[in-house]
Queue: 2 jobs
Job 1
Amino acid sequence: MFEQLGLIGCGLMGGSFALALKRAGLVRRVVGYSKSPLTLSRARALGVIDVEAPSALLAVSGADLVLLALPVAATEDTFKAVRHLLGAQALLMDVGSTKADVVAAARRTLGAHLPQFVPAHPIAGKEVAGIEHADADLYRGCQVILTPLPETAPQQSARAQQLWQALGAQVRLMDAQDHDAAYAAVSHLPHLLAFAAVNALGQQRAGRQWLELAGPGFRDFSRIAASDPVIWRDILQANAAEVLAQSRQFRAALDALEAAMQHSDGSALQKLIAHASALRSQWQPASGATAPDSIFAPCTKPPSSTCPP
Amino acid sequence: MFEQLGLIGCGLMGGSFALALKRAGLVRRVVGYSKSPLTLSRARALGVIDVEAPSALLAVSGADLVLLALPVAATEDTFKAVRHLLGAQALLMDVGSTKADVVAAARRTLGAHLPQFVPAHPIAGKEVAGIEHADADLYRGCQVILTPLPETAPQQSARAQQLWQALGAQVRLMDAQDHDAAYAAVSHLPHLLAFAAVNALGQQRAGRQWLELAGPGFRDFSRIAASDPVIWRDILQANAAEVLAQSRQFRAALDALEAAMQHSDGSALQKLIAHASALRSQWQPASGATAPDSIFAPCTKPPSSTCPP
């Protein structure tokens, strides 16, 4: 049980965390800060936060749990802004989709508070952003990757694990660099490709007309192209080297498919498609599980449709 | 009302058509043919077809409605195999995802029967193939593109429209070449990209491990990569020129995004993502509608989840 969550950033991710924590009865009070006054007052009107803080620093003041839920490039400045009032026992987390850059920012700024920081990346989201889409079930049944530093205090790392498990998530521990390599492949590159595919339609004269003809395949393939531009600008910049390396792998695989098409080599083409089809058919998204030994209240609701099996 | 549907190909598309027609009370008898005896007997056991035909020719014999539901490359040989017993009044359709090649095959083979052929492409499907996934609701609420030839008899074209509308689909008429250009952009290229993205993971040592970390974004983006290899080999080969042209457009859009990443040009990157995000957010899949003046029984059930709004 936490006394006070200091929530910095009141968007989909942060708002959903606050709602989930409240519903689970794991926090007494949520003090929120957003650089947008409109978002902040909306967060309070929606009951996501209890108190509007006039600054990030004041949201952190008195908090025993602090969550940064911001575009990743804002992490370093936010650490600088809040470190002076961060309580010595508070658990500090983020929810950024890249981890090596966030860890580097923490090392540069947190000083004696570094052991309190447990970098987190919940594998959840929607293609819509904003506090009005905050959902207490967003993290239920999803994976949450934690990338603690060697300096992270083991008891803070354990608290972070138990907290996410209490929200219905399945927790994995990883090295930050390994995390960034993996998510470049399974998340950041797919977003980049979806952005490119939609822009390719937009740049053609008939593109908008063609869009009217698109069906459920296009709908699902392109869903992530509707993601938030600032959040994804930051992710693609923070993890550019890994994403560009994955794009080279992708282009090689695309080249192979196109070569088979150009040479009318049906057998090679079928083999390449069969390989993709088999790999994708066998794949199952990781399902969440609640650790039975959680010190927090156990989850009883079934997984939501946000990340179904 | 049709007396007899001659169904050639008892997979997801053909089986769903037969089930939908039966449920709507629009056909008295379904005679099916599959080159796989196992599939054929399963189709009968599942009640999708009433009679097993020993050949495509015999499935067509006596039919006043004939549907080819095969990988598109099999169209020409099938036309040759069945034309001798095709009744003079029968309506002949296919469900292929490419249309110019199917029209060319019809011109080369159907002779005096050419006016009976109404090429059709229902924008429906699942990432799973096979008769066991046949679904009477597959076409409900979906678009069906018809690409009649100048030689197509207007009354056959009208029957085809009314038939698909009676199954709950929204019918559009298009030129076959225009169809292939549009679907290269909104369907065939997305499939090619999804195949390449999954193969890119498969070709890396850590790929399978990374897949365990993938979430709902990857799930939706890559769903179509699980599609049937033979069907998609044929589609990509039949429409290779258009698909390769769309891939060049896509690569140009990807180049622009990567250039912004390489130059750490956050403003350009954000602008490119914002363009994709806005275009995709505004997009809505076309919803089906039943024409009120259909001569067939009107549909009363709401659209299924197969191609939701």
Job 2
Amino acid sequence: MSKLINSPRDYVDEMLNGLVLAHPSLIRHGTSGRVIRRVDGPVAGKVGVVSGGGSGHLPLFTGYVGPGLLDACSVGNVFEGPNVASCSEAIAAADTGKGVLCLYGNYGGDRMNFNMACEMAEMEGIETTTVLGTDDIASADADQIGKRRGVAGIIYAYKAAGAAAEAGGTLADVTEIACRTVERTRTLGFALAPCTVPGAAGPTFELPDGEIEMGMGIHGEPGIWRDRIKPADALADEMVERLLASAPASTGTRLSLLVNSLGATPLEELYILYRRVAAQLGAAGWEIVAPLVGRYTTSMEMAGASLSLCFLDDEIENLLQAPSSCPFWRVG
Amino acid sequence: MSKLINSPRDYVDEMLNGLVLAHPSLIRHGTSGRVIRRVDGPVAGKVGVVSGGGSGHLPLFTGYVGPGLLDACSVGNVFEGPNVASCSEAIAAADTGKGVLCLYGNYGGDRMNFNMACEMAEMEGIETTTVLGTDDIASADADQIGKRRGVAGIIYAYKAAGAAAEAGGTLADVTEIACRTVERTRTLGFALAPCTVPGAAGPTFELPDGEIEMGMGIHGEPGIWRDRIKPADALADEMVERLLASAPASTGTRLSLLVNSLGATPLEELYILYRRVAAQLGAAGWEIVAPLVGRYTTSMEMAGASLSLCFLDDEIENLLQAPSSCPFWRVG
């Protein structure tokens, strides 16, 4: 598909310039401008919450910077982890002496660079902790949860950890709540059509028109099965079944639910999916709280959708409902 | 592109069911459920503001139903105007004796059915007025503004009229502000790839990969020129020049700006476009107020974008900034 760009080389920087121009609550920061932070941050006395990752997933990650959510994000090139310098600068930008939680998706490059940045921060006297998003149930089996990738469900951890930090939690408190929210969140997605990285010779993967790949990752990582597209209700039923089968133990009766477009798949189709998913969850005895439907984690113009369940306890539910302000989190 | 649906026949009704399940502030209404109205409406003593149109453009039209915005919307099939019955039911659902403004896009089918519904409403003692969205400068020349179609810019009129009604304006007041906002709003869009109506044999139009059609309408109506895709900045410059050349007389120095994706075009590209548009408007002496960047008026998975300018006066600016609540209007 044709892209509305100037040159692949300028893609990320021009995108970030537009982002901060359109949203004055955000500002570019750092020697190469590859950090987005709150214009009013850091907030004295508050634990910092930082994320980061490759570009091409808006509104992830930078769209969730704001009061009650993230303090700063490091920004990589398209589908590439952020470099060590930008991770360090994001951590420093969020620090006010109370420590910083680094909360990001479980990808090798991101992990390596954030780990190095955390070591350097510790040497400078900034206490850091790390929690990895691992919500994608298609990316590894249940006995290898630590190998699972982080996808759309990480926004639940952003919201819970951000609210806990805003409420005055210690670094240990905020880290624990992020960890618990990740542990209680499960995502499964599917692809209907690929995207193309700016400047690449072709799309990130091949998927013939009319076919679907269940469980495919947001960078085109291989999924569980590939077949002709099925009716939305059949897909909803399979996804709900797989997600509930992978639920953590002792999860209560309430959950939040995110039906997310990977990009091109329109809102109309998300609502068709939502309708069936909500009915199936209701039939299974689950009460749905503050559902989200829209584009929360994308891969540019990739077509497909994902379904995330966040199994609530009272504390996580209260934190998800706490006030926050950013360009892209909305409930209702 | 593969669609996430069950059957073309059930597309609209299943979509509406999902919409109201996900957003409890909205409810389906009317004999065939083809009206979306505020669950807490109608609000006694308030002028009603109603819109409507074909499906496939979410969040237009139904996503803008809420306090400070629309009271009700009639909903047609994909790319088809709503029927007379649903227009009548939307008007009746919004009426509390103060009259109802019908504010919708300038399309033949919509006009015919709303006109008939208004005549019937008048016979039942409901006073109605009509304002048509005519913001698309590519759809007719300046000397035939009444022939221009309504596209994304109509949301500015929704917001201003909705806020005026919420503030206690009379039907004449609310109608005048809607009319003035339409008169001060201009939109120009372009297509990069078509969408497909559910159940149709093929896409709504042909546009070879790598080509762009400037001025194409949201249903594939013919535009101004077709060529190979150009750099984003060149497109921004042309669009700003055409929009400013078509500005109404005596418009002050402040404007709001909507950079809208038609569906598949991702946020990253909208920000790249926004950056240049904002710079060019600034260089031309315009101050930008409360810009919007995102998907506000789509054609399902169509690729492309549109740019809307709303030339402000003090009253319209205050109304755009007034509190409102709906699933899809956001500023900041």
